[in-house]
Amino acid sequence: MPDPDVSPLLAFFKAMANESRLRIVGLLAQRERTGQELAEVLGLKEPTVSHHLAVLKDLGLVGVRPDGVMRWHALKPGALAQMNRRLLDQEPSALAPEATWDERVLANFTDAEGRLKTIPASRRKRWVVLNWLAEAFEPGRRYAEAEVNELIQRRHWDSATLRRELVGHRMLAREAGVYWRLPEAEWRAFDDREAIAPT
């Protein structure tokens, strides 16, 4: 369910995604017009134009002025400017998709340069960080220990602890000083292993 403050914006963008309604708004921005005139200019049937006008009226963009048997439609003064202000006044968090738990953990433990500030003590949070570190390793590629240390140290100075953690969680395999990334299906989940305390 969209936030009540955001739903009018969603309705506006959905309505404006239609080419005919965009053209109607452009024509009505020039001057008021009847539904029949709009239908002729756009090459549409009058019932189709009436439907588009109803959508625009519901959004508060278009007003109607009866004149005998004629109905004149016009863009409401300031309607688009008001919608623009509503968009700009929104908190960024109201318009952006809500961050996942993993994304919030990474945001809390990394700095603006994308470096790890500290190794989480919580096993669950540490799992998120290790998962993030493991993404730096290409599947199918072999790495010397010096290469592994270099990749980890781009994110955190303690490559020894994090390298051991990655191997302990079966994210990386090691043999004779050579490391490689294991398939995610083989990784040990944070809740089915013993904690490996950071040093």
> Strand sequence of the main sheet, in spatial order?
1-3-2
CATH architectural label of the largest domain = Orthogonal Bundle
Largest beta-sheet details = 3 strands, antiparallel
What overall form do the CA principal axes indicate?
A: rod-shaped
What is shown here, in short?
The chain has 199 residues and is α+β, with helices and mostly antiparallel strands. The protein contains 10 helices and 6 strands, in the order H-H-E-H-H-E-E-H-H-H-H-E-H-H-E-E.
Structure description:
Helix content is about 50%, strand content about 15%. It is α+β, with helices and mostly antiparallel strands. The protein folds into 2 domains: about 90 residues, Arc Repressor Mutant, subunit A (Orthogonal Bundle); about 90 residues, Arc Repressor Mutant, subunit A. The strands form 2 sheets. It has a 3-stranded antiparallel β-sheet. The chain has a 3-stranded antiparallel β-sheet with strand order 4-6-5. Helix 2 packs across helix 4. The radius of gyration is 29 Å and the shape is rod-shaped. The chain starts with 6 loop residues before the first helix and ends in an 18-residue tail after the last strand.
